[in-house]
Amino acid sequence: MLQGQVIAHFSAGRLVMLYFVKDNVIHKFPVPQRCGVKRDNEMLRDTIPYTVEKCVYCLNRWPGDDKD
Ligand SMILES: [Zn+2]
User: Fold this and answer.
1) Whole-prediction pTM
2) For the chain, which residues make up each domain, given as ranges?
3) Ligand 1 centre distance from Cα of residue 9 (Å)
4) Does the pLDDT at position 20 exceed 50?
């Protein structure tokens, strides 16, 4: 039952962004080159908690982001 729900979530045609928290700062995954943080065993998640700082390199929009 739970597995079926996960599959439905990812097949909805929606792009799922992934993040991880390191040292109380949230980063995007995969990590953009300009950030350079190294993810070790931090858990990936698809929501941003309100209790952490946001990495400016990962969470801000930068010139050239649309080219990828
Ligand atoms: Zn970052």
Assistant:
1) 0.71
2) 2-62
3) 26
4) yes
